[in-house]
Backbone:
């Protein structure tokens, strides 16, 4: 017997599934709504009044017969499913028509009353660096006192990470995961990149894989100091390691490969070698690019069909046009510019050109030590001139696109029932009430993750 949960009395439901009669453009808002979840997946969304009359068999309901995406869901091996485009979506291929079910299957096992509050899809944080030792509070304080940000601070995190035990890193990671859940994040990516040796990188992707399937191998984060010393082997020798022995050790635990294509990190040529080797090993491609100045990161990402290029602070006209004409998502990381006092990326220019924009936390101890998607939304609206609707979409559906996930980021039949209840009447309050903890309850696949029961 499938387990059925009815979420009802939702004042404002953001579905990211636009349809006739819904408001808010791409947000697909339903007012006074209800949502039925069956076995963790959305089965029906509509007016709560329709439920009060009993869930009639005529409703356009699609019930799952299998859980999504078990097993190997790496992008290189993914089924060739259609883009999550909103609008006139076909039912998922494994959906059952309502009349194929016993009538008792529709009687909810549980009813969750949302008290007229707003509900949005769970946040999808497509960019974080959460496996590390130590912190860099002193570096932050010095920077706020007027010293410019320098990437060299990574060195201290690498040292602290290498000397931390598995148990220390696991405990830290568990605390971060709890922190993410409490703030409404139901899907998140984690990168390696603070090990920078074969054993240390393997350990980081292995530990990350214990808490998420969205694991990114970022051996090409920075050239480690022992390779950069005057008589050290040099950057190209390190790239050899990253594309060879280190990749072989990390690929079994990872879904993605990433490279920091930036002055002071890796050249476009070195980044290409890393990304192509990762792709050949079955990993999907993502890129850190155009953060500290103009560069070739965006061009490379689009050329290689990357799922996402992240930062995008310094873009040429050609970069913007290339992103707009591609499937590569431009992922903006407002916490970085906030925490480093650097200029923000021009989100409006990307959106107006038609590029797909995501927002992510980039949570890391050096340049953006926030795991809060509501905070990132508030900054994106205030300082990157996104509308509240654009920012909420970018932090949910946009993140799902950046991870090429078709089962999260929206609330429509067949997708995971990942819901965030806001202590607010509208999604706009996420930007309107910055710093206020508005996330009340969080559900992933219909089950409570955080908040009052
Ligand atoms: Zn990053």
Residues:
């Amino acid at each position: 017997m499938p387990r059925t949960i009815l979420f009802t009395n939702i004042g404002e439901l953001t579905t990211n599934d636009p349809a006739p009669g819904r408001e808010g453009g791409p947000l697909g808002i339903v007012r006074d709504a209800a949502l039925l979840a069956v076995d963790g997946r959305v089965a029906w969304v509509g007016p709560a009044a329709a439920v009060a009359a009993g869930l009639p068999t005529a409703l356009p309901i699609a019930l799952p017969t299998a859980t999504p995406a078990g097993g190997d869901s790496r992008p290189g091996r993914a089924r060739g499913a259609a883009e999550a485009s909103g609008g006139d979506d076909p039912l998922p291929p494994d959906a059952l028509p309502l009349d194929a079910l016993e009538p008792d299957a529709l009687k909810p096992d549980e009813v969750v009353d949302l008290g007229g509050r707003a509900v949005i899809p769970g946040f999808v944080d497509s960019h974080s660096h959460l496996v590390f030792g130590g912190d860099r509070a002193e570096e932050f304080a010095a920077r706020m006192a007027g010293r410019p940000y320098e990437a060299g601070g990574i060195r201290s995190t690498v040292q602290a990470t290498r000397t931390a035990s598995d148990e220390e890193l696991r405990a830290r990671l568990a605390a971060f995961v709890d922190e993410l859940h409490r703030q409404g994040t139901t899907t998140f990516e984690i990168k390696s990149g603070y090990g920078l040796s074969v054993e240390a990188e393997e350990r980081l992707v292995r530990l990350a894989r214990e808490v998420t399937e969205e694991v990114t191998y970022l051996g090409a984060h920075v050239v480690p100091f022992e390779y950069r010393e005057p008589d050290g082997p040099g950057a190209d020798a390190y790239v050899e390691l990253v594309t060879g022995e280190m990749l072989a050790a990390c690929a079994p635990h990872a879904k993605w490969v990433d490279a920091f294509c930036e002055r002071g990190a890796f050249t476009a040529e070195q980044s290409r070698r890393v990304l192509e080797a990762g792709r050949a090993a079955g990993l999907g491609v993502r890129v850190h690019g155009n953060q500290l100045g103009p560069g070739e990161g965006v061009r490379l990402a689009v050329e290689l069909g990357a799922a996402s290029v992240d930062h995008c602070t310094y873009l040429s006209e050609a970069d913007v046009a290339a992103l707009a004409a591609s499937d590569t998502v431009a992922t903006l990381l407002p916490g970085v510019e906030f925490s480093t006092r650097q200029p923000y990326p021009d989100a409006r220019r990307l959106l107006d050109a038609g590029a797909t924009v995501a927002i992510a936390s980039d949570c890391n101890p050096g340049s953006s030590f926030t795991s809060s998607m509501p905070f990132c939304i508030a900054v994106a609206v205030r300082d990157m001139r996104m509308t509240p609707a654009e920012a909420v979409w970018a932090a949910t559906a946009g993140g799902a696109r950046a991870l090429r996930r078709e089962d999260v980021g929206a609330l429509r039949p067949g997708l995971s029932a990942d819901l965030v209840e806001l202590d607010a009447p509208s999604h706009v309050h996420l930007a309107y009430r910055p710093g206020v903890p508005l996330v009340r309850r969080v559900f992933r696949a219909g089950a409570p993750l955080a908040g009052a029961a």
